Amino acid sequence: xxxxxxxxxxxxxxxxxxxxxxxxxxxxxxxxxxxxxxxxxxxxxxxxxxxxxxxxxxxxxxxxxxxxxxxxxxxxxxxxxxxxxxxxxxxxxxxxxxxxxxxxxxxxxxxxxxxxxx
Length: 118
What we know:
Elements: E1 2-10, H1 15-22, E2 34-42, E3 49-57, H2 60-69, H3 71-77, E4 84-92, H4 98-102, E5 107-109, E6 115-116
Antiparallel strand pairs: 1-3, 1-4, 2-3, 2-5, 2-6
């Protein structure tokens, strides 16, 4: 199993545009090797908004194939790049981190950001 953690800093003025773009990742549901994605806003006191998204893949090979062949068409198509101030991506191959990452009490999960394998 491979877990991808994406942390994005968003200016408050772009929060709605980011959320709308994030809800357009439904195409993931048809990608071979994809398992689940969920995310939401991290609770912060003042400062920029922080979005955190966790995606789960069957293995590294499936994830790498997606990144090489499908990621950019989704990312470029929803125009999300234009509203992200900064982005940090971390990959984990340790299954024990899954529950901690996906059930973080500091994240207010957004239903529209969740994508499940169909």
